[in-house]
């Protein structure tokens, strides 16, 4: 991409700049939406998800975390709860921003390649204009063929990057599904043991 920007002619800069502006706008929207989703979720957990339970006739409120976790110490007390919530918030914000950045990377690369294809099409359309002799025409056709080969190589690189990103997302989703399944099984077993114990 950097080489395309360095080698760009003046008439190509407008197309490349417009694609870069679109890419920046889309990236800001995607990362902003990912961050807003995390912020809204954390606010929802902090404001609306407080439950009460009875311990020896005393009603005690339990504050939930954004991520369901069990810690080996009491974490509902004031300074410790806020520290854990802050760490969970930062973790979720970084994870969602990383996901957004990976999506923005693909969008940016695709917009760049579409700009290069548009520049190539414009050059092909204007190839016969202003070329009086055969040598100039042959040189410009060779330059266009070279540019087309660069576009093909760059498209292959985008495909490889996309494959790795898709693999990472599939593996992380599989891990999350397995962990959720484990939680469902262990919670069901725990509730069955409690029912048997109470009967």
From TrEMBL:
Q: Which Gene Ontology molecular-function terms are recorded?
A: odorant binding; olfactory receptor activity
The subcellular location is:
Membrane
**Membrane spanning stretches:** 25-43, 89-111, 174-192
UniProt GO BP:
signal transduction
Listed under GO cellular component are:
plasma membrane
Q: What does the UniProt keyword field contain?
A: Membrane, Olfaction, Receptor, Sensory transduction, Transducer, Transmembrane, Transmembrane helix
Q: Does the keyword Membrane apply?
A: yes
| Membrane topology summary | Multi-pass membrane protein
Name of one Pfam family that matches:
7tm_6
Name of this chain's protein? Uncharacterized protein
Q: Which organism is it from?
A: Cardiocondyla obscurior
